[in-house]
Task: structure prediction
Amino acid sequence: MARKKGSSKKNSEFLEGLVWKPKHVFDVLKEEEKKQVEDLSKEYIEFLSQAKTERETIERALTLLEKKGFFDKESKKGWVVYKNKLLFAWNFGKKKITEGLRIVVSHIDTPRLDLKLHPLFEDTELVFLKTHYYGGIKKYHWVAQPLSLHGVVAKKDGSLVKIVLGEKEDDPVFTICDLLPHLSRKVQAEKKLSEAIVGEKLNVLFGGLPLEELEEEKELKERVKLNCLKLLYQTYGIREEDFVSAELYIVPAGRAREVGIDKAFIGGYGQDDRICAFTSLKAFLEVEQPEYTNVLLFMDREEIGSEGNTSAKSRVFERFVYELIKKQGLSPTPDVFFEVMANTKAISADVTAGIDPNYVEVHDKLNDAKMGFGIAVNRYTGHGGKYMANEAHAEFLAELLKSWDEDGVVYQVVSMGKVDEGGGGTVAKYFASYGMDVVDAGPPLLSMHSPFEVAHKADLFMCYRAYKSFFSR
Result:
């Protein structure tokens, strides 16, 4: 029997429709949308360049919230800041709070070097600052780089001194000196990469000029350290004892930049996870009247396991939800709280690893995230055997992806690396413990946890669009 004309073509189209085909964002966007990508990228570069600590990120967020009318008199929308490192912002929806919240939570801490409690020391007429690294870093990334000093000093008189030094064009910068190759054979070159730079030697070069001696003060010791202390007191009014009640961080100096001859990428410090903080904040502010009550959360301490009272393990989140329950005239009982939680849906907005062709041996190319292919949805995280992970339920994932299809969100559903290569964790499991549905979703990065992480502009845009879609439904 002769085959009808066109049946072969229809069969081919049918079969092609059965196959999953990832889409590059720029193959989907219209010309006006590509202009939106560039506008968003410029805004993000400015945000990333100025928000290098948790406190600075909160300050930038509050400026934008206030411009949009938070707090209003009826408390339909507002925000609470806890310890200057946790932000809880809400916008009441049309539906009752007992029908659930829509939460997007990101973390705003990043790997860095913290100054020790007693950081200043002098050796051979050079002054250094001792550091203790925070979070998962490769120590060799931090040597022979221009660095800046950010943070606050809490003085006993109750005042708070803010310090940002090394960012302006005429500011001095700091650095951690590396050993020259001529002398490093035994000390570094013959060691494993993880052992070549020792954590205790991540000492920051801070000063080198001695205090000018007066005639009657010829016996002064550690004159370079004294000169540094004199400059600190003259500039900021702080003494050496004030370091014990300070939060001072060493971070890379300089602005975020466009990367690539085609300017396809954005490079800069702290994109894990401030890229999600920025895009979720922008999306949150643009949804004026949501169906469900929207909650934007910035949390701290994720990079060290979410420990402490500003982290996802802290129960202050419960306190803020109880306050929302009371604002709606409901009884703030555990029964009402867990009814809200059971109906809540959340996105743990966090980054994942993009496939790097230079290190393809650690990636599963079929399942890992590609740069420029949209927001990456990690159904589960953790490590070998899915330990320490949250895993999103199939029904929630299908519902979320259907809404993103309808709203023009380009996404990819991914894992992070081959099964036995390692893995990572997020805050998702802590929120899942309340009974809510939660999934990890954010952009892929290259050089993650380095001083210069790289994101694709297309993925930045799709994160913003995905979070806005989620807040709108």
